[in-house]
Amino acid sequence: MTPRPLDELLASAGVAPLGLVPASLLVHGVRVDSRRVEPGDVFFALRGARDDGARHAPDAIGRGAAAIVADTEAPATLGRVPWIRVPDARPAMALVAREWWGRPDESMTLVGVTGTKGKTTVAHLVESIARAGGRNPGRIGTVGHAFGGVEVEAARTTPEATDLYELLASMRGAGVEIVAMEVSSHALSLHRVAGARFAIAAFLNLGRDHLDFHGSAEAYFDAKASLFERLGPRDTAVLPEDDPLGARLADRTRARILTFGRGPGAGIRLTAETSTLAGSTAMLSTPSGMVEIRTPLPGRFNLLNAAASAACGIAFGAGADTIARGIGSLARVPGRLDPVISGQPFAVLVDYAHTEESLAAVLDTVRELTSRRLLVVFGCGGDRDRGKRFGMGRVAASKADRVVLTSDNPRSEDPQTILAGIEAGIRSVPGAAERCATIGDRAQAIALAVAEARDGDAVVIAGKGHETTQTLADRVIPFDDRSVAAQALAAMGFGGGSRADA
Question: In whole angstroms, what is the distance from residue 190 CA to residue 21 CA?
């Protein structure tokens, strides 16, 4: 990128500094991670819940930062590097990063997908629909960012603004036309997508999650709603017809409304649904007529995800046949009811469900599709919303025949404290404690559940899904539920088949 004067860059981005900016100051890049600063970069020192970017300013300066931008006063020990104050550093950083990378969002159709459950699946489906229609798609989300045949590991669901706009610029360079982007409530609250021009935004649902961050369910909803409040009259809001929150969002946006669901008023309406562990089918009533969809993804909630993705497809001009091909060609979504297949006579499914609502939905789905017992292995993450532990324990005990409690990502918390919170929920269900085992070691817990499974049973391993590591108090270790389950099956003598994700 060609170096630009910082005062010009701020003005073009619409950021008004609280003071003068040296007119001769050239910027060579925009960074928020001091470890990635190169000579000539501007470093944004952001305040966080646990850290203050100002503490890392000396490191950034030592690496050659040309200026520091922050919404705090400069420390007395700063030295001669300019310290530029702005009213709010987070949105300022996003707007400046967007400007630095040449507003790449304006060169493609951004489809933002938000909701507690289903974001990853819908983003994958939208990507698949775009590809089926001959469009060059990109995807940004929890399990990775993808474009041009390359998948990049994701550090978070929605990247930090400096990384997001750099990623979008790379997509633009690769000729990407449509980007399916998971937009998390954190990203909206922390202004990671500030400035981004979304043509389509889809809301899926709202459950109990991230209340440790947002403080209340209403604040959590307001964060989601902010994505729709920024849409214009030519944009499209894809909203659930069967959820009262859809109507509330319709009142908070200027965009055109396209609804999906099962109710008679849905613009994209599901009918004639069938589902097995091998996949699902349904008829979709659309403005273009009826279309049959077939997907390898099991469960009625995945048919609802398919309807939401179809609505997004219609919004960017995909025809009914394209939508059907796109939905049908997506074989799997990593860590979302993801089967582990080794020739065993029972199902083993890995899923990311880590809230009370998502665990209930997964267990209900598998229960409907299972001829015999339902076993579940799960835990709860540490340093996160403690209030959901009781509810997840109660849901598991109410809906599964056998519950194996174990560690998820305990982080800095004592794993036994986390497990005790879940066990309280299990004990609230009469007689459930006798059907529950607690094994802190996750690999051992998975091995126990798999070993107990019999013909026709289903084992659900919930909580971590696509993740390939486990975060402990003092280290991060490799851990992939799918691989661990496959190893447990191999130890039992199964191995004639292959893992679905091999």
Answer: 25
Classified by CATH at the fold level, domain 4-100 comes out as 3.40.1390
d(CA 363, CA 420): 22
Give CA separation, 318 vs 130, 306, 429, in Å: 7, 14, 48
In this structure, which topology does domain 104-329 adopt according to CATH?
UDP-N-acetylmuramoyl-L-alanine:D-glutamate ligase (3.40.1190)
* Residue from 48, 43, 16, 23 nearest 32 by CA: 43
Domains of the chain by residue range: 4-100, 104-329, 338-491
Contact partners, residue 353, CB within 8 Å, separation at least 6 = 359, 361, 362, 378, 462, 463, 465
Q: What is the tens place of the pLDDT at every residue in 401-455?
A: 999 999 999 999 999 999 999 999 999 999 999 999 999 999 999 999 999 999 9
Give the pLDDT mean for 275-284: 94
**What is the pTM (predicted TM-score) of this model?**
0.91
pLDDT per position as a tens digit, 294-320 = 999 999 999 999 999 999 999 999 999
CATH value of 338-491 in 3.90.190.20, 2.40.50.140, 2.30.30.100, 3.30.300.20:
3.90.190.20
Whether the per-residue pLDDT at 212 is higher than 60: the answer is no
- Asked if residue 316 lies in contact with residue 199, where contact means CB atoms within 8 angstroms, the answer is yes
How far is 95 from 64, CA to CA, in rounded Å?
Answer: 23
pLDDT for 109-140, tens place per residue? Answer: 999 999 989 999 999 999 999 999 999 999 99
